Amino acid sequence: MATPLGHSIIGYALARAAGLESRGAFALAMGAASLPDVDFLAGYVQNGDVRSLHHEVITHKPIFPLIVGAATGAAVAGFSLLRGRRPKAREVGKPAALATVLVASHVAMDLLPLPYDTMPASSIGPVEAAMTQAWNAVIDVATYGILAILVLERNGQTSEA
Ligand SMILES: [Zn+2]
């Protein structure tokens, strides 16, 4: 499975490709692309083990991106109504679709058979864990960094902010 770095790279690239421009929007996009890994936190809270629920709950299921997209659309529409405006379909549909794509990118990326070093189920030391994550980050930068650059260059955007 990809690291948060890999998910964030793709989240940033998708946000740029969708025409978003602000740093806040990029941060939200990178957060959405990493959202399914909230099951690490759920596992820690419930069982005291960050890996106990990883890929075991709904956040890595194909339905989850649709739920997040629908919730995003409902939130945008609700916010518009609170401001006394009737929401337009495009105002609701674009963020809902983007949220769906961002979260779906995570679910799909975790299925790709890249040569990650997976941590064993038994606990390993902090040095071994750091080395594992460093190797996985190298794979993510090599794979998703290059993919993001290619996509952004093709869209006429450079990787400069
Ligand atoms: Zn994941």
Summary of the model, kept short:
This protein has 161 residues and is an all-alpha fold.
Description:
This protein is an all-alpha fold. The protein has one domain. It is 66% helix and 0% strand. α1 runs antiparallel to α5 and α2 packs across α5. The longest helix has 29 residues. The model has no long low-confidence stretch (mean pLDDT 90). The structure holds zinc ion. Zinc ion binds next to loops.
Distance between the termini: 28 Å
Order of helices and strands: HHHHHH
Q: State the total count of DSSP E strands.
A: 0
Number of structural units classed as domains: 1
Number of H/I helices: 6
Helicity, in percent? 55-70%
Query: Which molecules are bound besides the chains?
Result: zinc ion
Average predicted confidence as pLDDT: 90
Indicate the overall shape: globular
Strand content: under 5%
- Helix-strand makeup class: mainly alpha
Largest sheet: none
Rg over alpha carbons: 17 Å
* Low-pLDDT windows of residues: none
Multimerization status: single chain
